[in-house]
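Ticket opened by: R.M.
Priority: normal
Category: complex prediction / small molecule

The reporter submitted a protein together with zinc ion and asked that the result be attached to this ticket for the collaborator who will pick it up next week. Submitted input follows.
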Amino acid sequence: MAGFESRRIQAAIESAARAWTRRVDTIETHDGDKVWLEQVACNLCGSRAFEPLYRKRDTRFETSDHAFQVGVCGRCGLGYLNPRPARQSMDAFYPTTFFSDRDSPKRRRRYEQELALLPPRVTRLLDVGCANGDFAARVAARGIEVEGLEVAQSASNRHGLVIHGGWQTVPDASFDCVTAWAVLEHLHDPMEVLRHVARVLRPGGCFVFLVPNFASPASREMRLEDTPRHLYFYTPETSARYLQAVGLQLDSVRMDTEIYARGHRGYLNYRVRRALGREFRPCDRRKPLRGFERGEIGLAELLWAWPCDQLDRALAPAITRYFLRRDRHDSMIVVGRKPASS
Ligand SMILES: [Zn+2]
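Result attached by the on-call engineer:
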């Protein structure tokens, strides 16, 4: 009993340490939204020992000029954005177009690939971060009872499914599978969500999630993360620690070569630019001719960047395989399981 008490006290101390935040700054987006930036502690271990790695602007939607800082926890190695936009400021970084392209042929192919990854004999599934419910609708078409969970206001329930707006309405031990496709990297408190996942899973049920792999050069060196929408950056090791922290067992980590992965095309371009002391922007990843046409690079740069890109294209499959074999592929699928006896 004393052991139980001390574990409970320890858990409360860790939980308080993880919840620490401090507002440090405000920035303004190009649309004139004022955004609070907050410093946070590590969401996995509660440590405030943060080691900055790089800074990156919102190069995808160009919402602001602010370069957000990506780094790792000095104690457990979890990657995270710090400081980061406060939760109530995040709408400024999710334009409606973020959810609009969800039924394109490319997306539909993704949903089919995700369906193929579901474990056999699933009867009730919860899709976390279900957006408009497009994947969930495909699950339902297979005869599986399905519900979704989505907190974003800009998403719409276009298939008329049961979609929860928060965890409070999801009952305990009610699903034998929970999925989260490219969701955990967007959360402000992944530990809280993991706890809920563990709570709503039935004993023996599994949690399947896909995240970018922060052990990959694409994420860690080439900076291809979608900042500031991506707030956390996971590796196979930190994913396993998250599962363990909420009482789930790690079933498997497999590198994702089909769904979201882009591989390491551009890695040679990145290395050459770095060797030359030049900045590497997402547009420098490939196709310098297009960059030249758009005025992003000059003729002198095109003269060396173009042959370099040809070599990059030729070597990309081998480079991608090299990192894949070392579990440093750019995207991964993790499966955790709730012990049957709990
Ligand atoms: Zn940590």
